[in-house]
Write a structure and sequence with these properties.
The protein is mainly α. The protein has a single domain, classed as Up-down Bundle (Four Helix Bundle (Hemerythrin (Met), subunit A)), CATH 1.20.120. It contains 5 helices and 2 strands; from the N terminus they run αααααββ. Helix 1 runs parallel beside helix 5, helix 3 packs parallel to helix 4 and helix 3 packs antiparallel against helix 5.
Length: 217
């Protein structure tokens, strides 16, 4: 995923960055909803495997995580639905128990996702991403984190759809698989030696990807 460019001081540049972030949020959300398009309420709500969350739980968790980081923590606003905090907390709600929780079902969870997104986009319009204020907002860091979080749950939803047996799943569309190019030849020998491992000190990275350091292989 492309890192958000360092912001300049112009209002035009700030507006362009806000628009770019909003576009990326909408692009990722469109893919999430695309995957569940056409599923019955039963397929959204039920437990398909004890190792996997109900798809509706994943959708509600995506929205609750977004509300937590892009509304509450970034701007100090109260939660949209305080009663849902523990329902979608992965630490207090293990996968084996999520099917019995009062999570939002079907149309209710989709409406909740829309309501959270409305607050997110409204606050984004005036967000100070320059680095002089809330460090979560600096350079769009927290938006990148939330985007990647939703993409991770998109993968989880895909896993659930692949093992679902309650109804056939037909994707709304398919992308053609690119033709593979075979490369003939022997194994390549890569000599060992020192190299840099880890993410650089700027831009988005997870905690376990820093600091960048020398490693000898």
């Amino acid at each position: 995923m492309t890192r958000i460019a360092t912001l300049g001081g112009s209002q035009a540049g700030d507006a362009a960055t806000h628009a770019a972030l909003a576009g990326r949020l909408q692009e990722v959300r469109a893919r999430t909803l695309f995957l569940v398009e056409g599923l019955s309420d039963e397929a959204l709500n039920e437990v398909h495997d004890p190792l996997m969350s109900p798809i509706a739980w994943d959708l509600g968790h995506i929205a609750t995580f977004e509300d937590l980081w892009l509304v509450q923590n970034a701007f100090g606003r109260p939660p949209l639905r305080a009663d849902l905090g523990r329902v979608y907390d992965p630490f207090s709600a293990p996968r084996s128990e999520r099917g019995s929780l009062p999570y939002l079902r079907a149309a209710d969870v989709l409406r909740h996702m829309e309501a959270v997104r409305e607050r997110t986009l409204a606050l984004l319009e005036t967000a100070d991403l320059s680095g002089s204020g809330n460090p979560l907002l600096a350079d769009g860091f927290v938006y990148e984190m939330v985007l990647r979080h939703e993409q991770q749950h998109t993968e989880t939803i895909l896993q659930t759809l692949q093992i679902m047996v309650s109804e056939p799943y037909q994707p709304p569309a398919r992308r053609p698989v690119p033709e593979a190019e075979s490369v003939a030849g022997d194994m390549a020998l890569i000599p060992g030696g020192p190299f840099e491992m880890g993410a650089p000190g700027v831009g988005f990275a997870y905690d376990n990807e820093r600091p960048c350091h020398a490693h000898d292989q």
